[in-house]
Amino acid sequence: MANHKPGKNHDLLKQRILFVAAKDFLEQGYTNTTMRDIATKTKLSSGSVTNLYSSKEDILCGLVQFVFDQQFETAARILSGTTDDKVLLYAAETVLQLHIADLNENLREIYRNAYSFPKSSEIIQQSTTGKVESIFKEYLPDLETKDFFKLEIASGGIMRGFMVVPCSIWFTMEEKEKAFLENALLIYHVPEEKIREAVEFVKQFDFDKIAQTMVDGIIQYLEEKQKELFS
Question: pTM for the full model?
Answer without folding.
Answer: 0.90
